[in-house]
Amino acid sequence: MSASQIGLILIIACVVAIVSRRLRLPYSVGLVAAGVSLAALGGALNLVVSPDLIYTVLLPPLIFEAALQLKWRPFRSDLPVTLLLAFPGVVLTAAIIAAGMHFIVGWGWLGAALFGALIAATDPVSVVAAFKDLRVEPRLSLLVESESLLNDGAAAVAFGVLVSVAHGAPIAPTHIAGALGWMVVGGVGVGLLVALAALLVAGRTEDHLVEITLTTIAAYGSFWIAEHFHMSGVLAALAAGLVVGNVGWSGWMGCSISNAGREHLVSFWEYAAFLSNSVVFILIGVHEANQASRLVTPAAALAIGLVLAARMATVYPLCASFLGSRLKVDLRHQHVLVWGGLRGALALALALAVPDEVPEKGAIIVAAFAVVAFSIFAQGLTMPWLINILGLKSNGVGDVKRG
Predict the structure, then answer these.
(1) 375 φ, ψ (degrees, to nearest 5)
(2) Domain boundaries, the chain
(3) Given a cut of 70, is residue 398 above it in pLDDT?
(4) Do residues 80 and 98 touch, judged by C-beta distance below 8 A?
(5) What is the pTM of this model?
(6) Which CATH number does the domain 50-390 belong to among 3.40.50.300, 1.20.1530.20, 3.30.460.20, 3.30.420.40?
(7) For residue 253, what is the enclosing H or E element?
(8) Which residue of 68, 71, 138, 258 is most buried, as measured by CB atoms within 10 A?
(9) How much is the pLDDT for 346?
């Protein structure tokens, strides 16, 4: 990416942010539209959408910043719900989508399973931004964001196991279970260790620039180390963000961020997420414009329908298991969880990373971009309307993530 391209992205991001706020439109929709416009005007932003750019450069700050904002106590109180939606939910969603693509479209089982795994994870960026503007009930916002963080990790783990199968790894249950355990436990462990090490050093200084640098090392370092050892980088960055945002604020055993540095730290990571999202969604727009004719296919349309159907078949039954308990999920919240299950950066990065050995790779990329485009424009644009219809604006209680 050249300096001129970076400069153009920054200008576009600023203009779109201002215009979107005044028009009360989701920021991500404006960015994608800007990318489409640029491509239509002659490709002023001639960027290559690569898995390395999205997955290893832009994804870690998005995961880390979202986890940094989550407070442990409210996150822990709803953890049974989010864990059920994120792990069994991802498996069920992926299975429904894979079965549909295999039996209806005719994809091979491996290609269908890879697509099911990569498209099962939700991206809350557009929805959470709308939540902040609309002042949505705190628990709903927490459920949407925490579930998306956990199911990002679950989807990435499932995809990683399937990729190893595509490369010839044995598919015995014991091998798959071992690989899953290594990726999940290893990823979380790496995130915890790297974040704690960074905080131990941060506790010896009150220089906010050093503290920001150390958390940058924690975010990217945990992700890259985990990926290097075939663990889950997504879960590593998630664990690192939770540790920094909770242990780092408490000062446990000298692992702390200075009082003066906290505001700088939060502002830096909000900007990092803003910049990463800007690049990702502009790239989506450029790609959509360049591939518009390929996106309108029966397989892409079926993929969109399957994703929505799978989301409904997952959220409603799993949430029903908490009826009669303190963790009961309001039916209106379930509607938002279903329609607010947008897809984004992770789905695109994993689609582009599908091994060349998979015959359906090209079709998988097309279907993934079609689903992402539909979710951003159709679901993202109608989310504020749905929130108003369901009457889910906050009654004034403080934000549960920051309180």
Answers:
(1) -65, -40
(2) 50-390
(3) no
(4) no
(5) 0.86
(6) 1.20.1530.20
(7) none
(8) 68
(9) 84
